[in-house]
Amino acid sequence: MGTENREQVARAATIVMSAILVSRILGFLRERAVAEVFGRTAVTDVFFAAFALPDLMYQLLVGGALSSAFIPVFTQYLAQEDEKEAWYVASIFLNIIVLALLLIMVLGVIFTPSLAPLVGIGFSGEQKELLVLLMRVTFPAVFFTALAGLSMGVLNSYQRFTLPAIGPIIYNLGQILGAYVLGPIVGIMGMAIGTIFGSMGNFAIQFPEVFRRGKKYYRPTVDLKHPGIRRMGQLMLPAIIGLSIAQINIIVSQNLASTLETGSIVALRLANRLMNFPLGIFAMGISTAIFPTLSRLIAKGEKSEFTRTLSFGLRVVFFITIPSAVGLAFLRVPIVRLLFESGEFTAVDTLATAHALLFYVPGLVAQAAIQVTTRGYYSLQDTVTPVKIGFVTVVLNFLLSIIFLRTTSLGAGGLALAFSISSLFNVVLAMSILGKKLGDLINLQLFKSITKATISSLFMGVAVFFSSSFLNVILPTDRKLGQLGQTFGAIVIAILVYFAMSAILKMDEVGFVFNLIKEKLNKKAKKANEESHLKEQ
Fold it and tell me: Is residue 157's pLDDT more than 80?
């Protein structure tokens, strides 16, 4: 990977991961708010189920359309220094998507009673009525969240990552306020209202910058015959299914969980959120940052550099997520207890959530690699292969879920395990096919990186186990301060051991991660110096 491209990816990844870190922390505060105010109850099961279809609609229209079609084509025009034509195509695309969103929002609200069983087959009576009501209220939030996603696509294509990364922070704040401020007054409906205002804020913070860049080019037109739009359509249609595979798998698991004991959906949801913390910060941060660079390299015909950049992205993701998975497995109970055990969320709920988290852990590494490989396919403007792989994955996930529910006593853990196994199958197949396309993607350097990360993580796991056990004895873990000391003390030791082992094994990725930290610290120091200089003046 060239030095210039590596530095560009590093700068972008620093911005994105920093903002996503804040967003994910707020996301945990949001989940904690739900658990603390409403508990692991039938009402919270319904609330999380109500979000399944709106989330899927977002993935279909924005996740698939944006990542597979808009960014590669829009970036290609920008790389060819044809900004006017780029915005003409963008205008048409944005107009079509906005009209489609309005139609889906209206139809979704009208036909909610027919859609509800798709996400909560086990609900009946008052639970079903509440599910229909919450789905109708939250459908409009999809409209604004999707517009925010489209704004993100435009800004990312210009290598602008700060505002798109701040948007989700506002979204989470809206939901947190909805839980704590409106929850005691209007119940779970407060979360739905907070979601709508949070999604509006997400879009509002990005739109002015998008408007500034496109105001002289934007056209209120729909030209379906334009070559760029036709190319987007060819890329988008298969990718609409391909990129939302993980979301479909979650819906399958959630629907089956509605047939289990009360609170199973909440346990799966919270465990999935914990798994998504390192996934969201690092894997999504790196894949988001690397995607425009990959698209630009392909647009310029630099396939060798493209392969090196993609392989490097995979190595960094494995370097970070393998120890994250091991750490979550060993610290699952202390982490869940620290973050969620309060108010209506009891010790029994902690154990149920930690049980599900243990079986989600293997899927963390797989889902992280999928984030990068998917961007690789879409940069190559190949959206058909991920769809084929994804279809098989969905079928496998469903079959394994049924098998585990009928033949084991794992409960919600069985659904999490089915998700993890199908995710591992997905990434192995995706990397194998992509490796054949590119030739040098799966090489000795990648295998060495995975092996060294695994060895370092095992040493780290042993250190985490003994340090956590020791801190559990000497600290008052029946109190939050003691729980905080145990969890973060073990995490600090884990980080030190892992990086020490990585340095001993001479892993190249250590330097990249330290450069990210160094660049972040340098920016803070530079900003402080500038502020100090201004004060002196």
Answer: no
Residue 407 belongs to some domain of the structure: yes
Q: Are 486 and 474 in contact (CB under 8 A)?
A: no
How far apart CA 40 and CA 189 sit, in angstroms, is 16
Distance from C-alpha of 366 to C-alpha of 345, rounded to nearest angstrom: 30
Across all residues in the chain, what is the average pLDDT?
80
Asked if the structure places residue 533 within a domain, the reply is: no
pLDDT on residue 417: 92
In a domain? residue 136: yes
Contact 294, 302 (CB under 8 A): no
Confidence of residue 29 (pLDDT cuts 50, 70, 90): confident
Residue 130's pLDDT band, with cuts at 50, 70 and 90, is confident
User: For residue 317, which of 363, 371, 271, 272 has the smallest C-alpha distance?
Assistant: 371
| Concatenated DSSP letters of 357-395 | HHHHHHHHHHHHHHHHHHHHHHHTT--HHHHHHHHHHHH
Which domain range does residue 321 map to?
3-523
Would the pLDDT of 418 be above 80?
Answer: yes
| Residue 111, SS3 per DSSP | coil
Contact present, 182 and 198 (Cβ < 8 Å):
no
Q: With helix as H, strand as E and coil as C, how does 397-463 read?
A: HHHHHHHHHHHCCCCHHHHHHHHHHHHHHHHHHHHHHHHHHHCCCCCHHHHHHHHHHHHHHHHHHHH
Q: What are the DSSP calls for 125-183, one per residue?
A: THHHHHHHHHHHHHHHHHHHHHHHHHHHHHHHHTT--HHHHHHHHHHHHHHHHIIIIIH
CA–CA dist 380, 384 (Å, integer): 11
Between 304-313, 441-450, 503-512, the lowest mean confidence (pLDDT) is in 503-512
Tokens of 243: 């990129």
Tokens 């060895």 -> residue: 455
- Give the span between the Cα atoms of 320 and 457, in whole angstroms: 10
**Using an 8 Å Cβ cutoff, are 164 and 156 in contact?**
yes
Residue indicated by tokens 């209007």: 186
| 347: Cβ contacts below 8 Å, ≥ 6 apart | 337, 341
Helix, coil or strand: residue 122 = coil
Query: Quick check: 68 and 236 in contact, CB under 8 A?
Result: yes
Number of domains in the chain: 1
The confidence score (pLDDT) of residue 424 equals: 93
DSSP conformation letters of 34-48 = HHHHH-SSHHHHHHH
Q: What is the pLDDT of residues 278-330, one digit of tens each?
A: 776 666 667 666 777 777 787 777 788 888 888 888 888 888 889 999 999 99
Asked if residue 280 belongs to a domain, the reply is yes
Position 358 confidence tier, pLDDT thresholds 50, 70, 90: very high
What does each C-alpha distance from 165 to 15, 23, 174 come to in angstroms?
8, 8, 16
Q: Name which of 132-136, 158-162, 199-203 the model is least confident about.
A: 158-162
